Amino acid sequence: MKAYRLKKTGKARVLKIEDITEPIPKKNELKIKVITIGINYAEVLSRKGQYSWAPKKPYVIGMECFGEVVELGDGASKYKVGDKVIVGQQYGSYAEFVCAPEHLCFPGFEQFTAEENAAYLVNFMTAWVALKKLCRVEADERVLIQAAAGGVGTAAVQIASALKCKVYGTASKDEKLGLIKKLGGIPVNYMTNDFYEVIVNDGGKVDCVLETVGGEVFKKSMKLLDSFGRLVVIGFASMNLKIWNPITWVKTYIDAPKVNMMNMAIESKGVFASHIGYLTENEDLTAAIWDELYAFTIDNNLKPVVGKVFEFSDLPDSHTFMESRDSVGKIVVKV
Question: What's this model's pTM, rounded to 2 decimal places?
Answer without folding.
Answer: 0.92
